[in-house]
Amino acid sequence: MRPGVRPRWEVRVVRRAVLRLLLASVTGGIAGLVLYSLTRVTSRSLFAVTGALAAVVALLASEWYRKAARLTEVKVTIPQLSELTFAVNNDSRQVAWHMFVETVTRVSTQPLADDEGVVREALTSMYGLFATTRETLKVTRPSPVVPSGQTVEYLAITMLNRELRPFLSKWHPRLREFEMAHPDDSESTWPDNAACRAELQRVQQHIHGYAAGFARLAGVREADALIGQVPGPRDEADDLRRDAGRTARP
Predict the structure, then answer these.
(1) Buried-most residue among 83, 165, 168, 207 (CB within 10 A)?
(2) How far apart are CA 172 and CA 176, in angstroms?
(3) What is the distance between the alpha carbons of residues 230 and 114, in angstroms, rounded to a whole number?
């Protein structure tokens, strides 16, 4: 590099600084002219300008609200409920997204493999899903009811009353009774362990359909990859025969 010649990167920095300075000066000058013009107008003209600006703001706000509140029909197929048509807007999509996240991150859709996990933890997770769903529905505004479609609340409440409530009402008291009568025994010695796990997988299969429905309502892409594959229902007879074989081992 010759003496007295600046590097190219220094020249670029100086040029950018000068350009920013010119842009700042022009912007400041325009802002000053606008402010000066507003101070020179008469009170009648000022009211006219203010009214025009308020009308523009109101128009933009109403357009945004119309798009946010606009109902869209979405068809969802739930194996237990056949095909349903739902009417959703931005608020109901948010509820559906919340429900989707809750269902796919719990034991409700994630398999509990043979000899893995604890049934008590699975029941606790199911109770958590039940409580979270109910709380979500309590704190959100009801979706608009239209004659041609169901609402996301209908899908969530159906999941509670048709899937979670019967399962928990049946198995929670039985497991609690065993735990109280045999506080030092392993859960694997519970006589109903295999039967409970088999029914748990059947419930998982059903909730898998609800999770896919929530994903469809929320507009989630590639939902199947996020939900994962739930194994088919367990054969309770095979489980009982396998447990009997383990007991017979010396």
Answers:
(1) 207
(2) 6
(3) 13
Angle in degrees, CA 41, 47, 50, rounded to 5: 100
Phi-psi region at 18: left, alpha or beta (left = phi > 0; alpha = psi -120 to 50): alpha
Amino acid at 175: L
Contact 72, 88 (CB under 8 A): yes
Block residue for tokens 């095909």: 83
Report the distance separating Cα 231 and Cα 228, nearest Å.
10
Give per-residue pLDDT as tens, 129-164. Answer: 999 999 999 888 877 776 667 888 989 999 999 999
What does the radius of gyration of the chain's CA atoms come to, in whole angstroms?
Answer: 31
The H-assigned helical ranges of the chain are 8-40, 43-69, 90-104, 119-139, 152-159, 165-181, 193-218, 223-227, 236-248
Name every residue whose Cβ is closer than 8 Å to that of residue 184 and which is 6 or more positions away in sequence.
Answer: none
